[in-house]
Design goal:
This protein is of the alpha/beta class and about 130 residues long. α1 packs antiparallel against α3.
């Protein structure tokens, strides 16, 4: 069984490039709307889709989540990505925290040696960790 995940955000052209750089992903299958934004863009690692991105045509969701985060409230779910090293987690964290909201800076937890929680500028809540 595989859980497919799609992130619905505004401004997919920038977001796809941003996530590729932050997480070391490549573009897989994709389709665009007539305006050039992504109707569906699969981002992959080692030929396997990690998640897809779809343009909502509105940044209302991201703005609402950012406002809630600044008040100390966070979404009820997160996107979890595992990495091989602390350096990879730190690199992704540094990109995601720009214009985002840090819930917990990188460090240990009782069940993990190195992880972090951050809401990015697109309103996506991430849990990044060393596997």
């Amino acid at each position: 069984m595989h859980l497919g995940m799609t992130i619905y955000i505004h401004n997919t052209l920038d977001a796809v490039e941003f996530y590729q750089k932050a997480f070391g992903l490549t573009m897989g299958y994709n389709e665009k709307f007539p305006d050039g934004t992504y109707m569906h863009a699969e981002l992959q690692r080692d030929g396997k889709t990690v998640f897809a991105v779809c343009d909502t045509k509105s940044d209302e969701v991201a703005v609402t989540l950012q406002k809630l985060a600044k008040k100390g409230r966070f979404p009820i779910s997160s996107m979890a990505l595992d990495f091989d090293t602390e350096e990879e987690v730190s690199q992704a964290f540094e990109m995601l925290r720009e214009e985002g909201v840090v819930r917990r800076p990188p460090g240990p937890l009782p069940w993990n040696s190195y992880s972090t929680d951050v809401l990015d500028k697109y309103g996506v809540y991430w849990y990044l960790y060393v596997k």
